[in-house]
Write a structure and sequence with these properties.
Strand content: 35-45%
Number of strands: 28
Low-confidence stretches: 1-17
Structural class: mainly beta
């Protein structure tokens, strides 16, 4: 699991009553199911949708989003989309005020698969999301999974396909799937389960099922006395959300149970939140499950009957790997091939190699940066402990070479 891979869309308290229920997607007449292919990059599910029947745009498929969001206002302005009203929303840190606009009756097409003829969406005043620099992938918005909720939704991470089933013809899966009850609140699915941060402690927790988060597990430290970072946790950027970077700690959790299935030694992020203000809005949840963990299963979600089915995949028992370099890197430039060091963790291999925030990465190994993507670089920094990664960088106009010796930090 790569570190710093959270994208979440926290919207303002009380906002959900401002937006009517989404009309959602419809299958073509006579179709009982459709397979919708997706890109899976940097632990995110990305769908291509045609905006207002014309412009192909990329959206993150997000079970953790209450509403569909367009992050690029220049697109809706170019297409002369009218805005009904302006209001304030809250960023992912649950404190930063942001501005968004309500756009009604937007059409989305997935050609030959499904169409949403009349969606009400949010358009951000500015691209607070900044997804490109953080994940190195071009994305234009967030698609709330609730837009598919009239159908049974199956997510197959291995085939990279979302299948929508007409519920009138859907038959529950066989014994190789485990049924787990869901709670649906404000268009979002939650699971109640048992978690052990340490071997000698067990907490009953409520977790958001969040395909908009690339990490495995995030816990809110103020929501339960047992949900605190372990002694060896590292101060770290948790990820990027609406409003900027999120700060917290990275550590490992001993065990998480999902029915008869369990996951051990999970790389986990810990975030402090103001529960006195936000706990009710958060549906009293203790954290979230992201794609780093969910991708170890095939998922089937029934929003209407509040049911989840899980089937382990070949990656079910794979090791959870935390970044072994201590580098946080962002991408910029028209082709997202300019890579800048955003942060360096204390006592990390990158710090020992004298790599500093603001350094521009020109080459990793023998490969120039123009031939790399941000996910390419992150994969190289997840190599085996002891591997030497040579990095050429530019600092204050001067080129220099550094060698990072990878090692486990958690």
């Amino acid at each position: 699991m790569k570190k710093r891979l959270l994208i979440c869309c926290a919207l303002a308290l009380g906002l959900f009553w401002l937006l009517p229920a989404q009309n959602g997607f419809h299958l073509p007449p006579g179709r009982r199911q459709v397979d919708i292919p997706f890109e899976y990059s940097n632990n995110f599910i990305i769908l291509t949708l045609h905006f207002n029947g014309f412009l192909p745009l990329k959206f993150i498929f997000d079970t953790g989003a209450e509403h569909t969001v367009l992050t690029k206002r220049e697109i809706s302005d170019l297409m002369k989309v009218p805005y009904e009203r302006e209001f304030q929303i809250t960023g992912s840190d649950l404190t930063t005020p942001l501005i968004a606009y309500l756009a009604r009756r937007i059409r989305f097409d997935i050609p030959e698969k499904a169409v949403a003829p009349s969606e009400d969406i949010l358009v951000l005043q500015e691209d607070y999301f900044r997804f490109e620099e953080y994940a190195g992938i071009e994305v234009h918005g967030i698609l709330s999974a609730n837009a598919f909720s009239r159908y049974i939704i199956k997510i197959n991470y291995q085939r990279r396909v979302i299948t929508l089933y007409d519920r009138d013809y859907f038959r529950p899966p066989g014994n190789d799937y485990l049924a787990i009850p869901l709670e649906i609140y404000r268009n979002k699915p939650y699971v109640n389960t048992t978690l052990q941060v340490l071997p000698d402690s067990a907490a009953q927790v409520k977790l958001l099922l969040d395909t908009g988060a690339g990490m495995s597990l995030l816990l809110f430290t103020d929501t339960h006395p047992l949900l605190h970072p372990p002694a060896n946790a590292l101060a770290s950027n948790i990820g990027m959300g609406l409003g900027g970077y999120l700060e917290g700690f990275a550590g490992r959790v001993f065990r998480l149970e999902l029915g008869q299935f369990s996951q051990q030694n999970i790389v986990t992020f810990f975030q402090q939140i103001d529960t006195t203000v936000n706990y009710e809005y958060l549906n009293k949840r203790n954290g979230l499950l992201g794609n780093g963990l969910l991708s170890r299963f095939s998922l089937i979600i029934d929003y209407q009957k509040q049911q989840l089915w899980l089937k382990p995949t070949k990656n079910y028992q794979a090791e959870y790997v935390f970044d072994r370099s201590g580098l946080s890197i962002i991408a910029s430039g028209p082709k997202l091939d300019v890579f800048i060091v955003q942060n360096v963790l204390p006592n990390s291999p990158a710090l020992e190699a004298d790599i500093r925030p603001g350094d521009q990465i020109l080459r990793v190994g023998t490969t120039p940066s123009v031939f790399l993507t941000l996910p390419d670089i992150q994969r190289k920094l997840l190599g085996k402990p002891g591997k030497k990664v040579k990095i050429t960088l530019r600092r204050d106009g001067e080129k220099m070479k550094k060698t990072v010796v990878l090692r486990d930090m958690l």
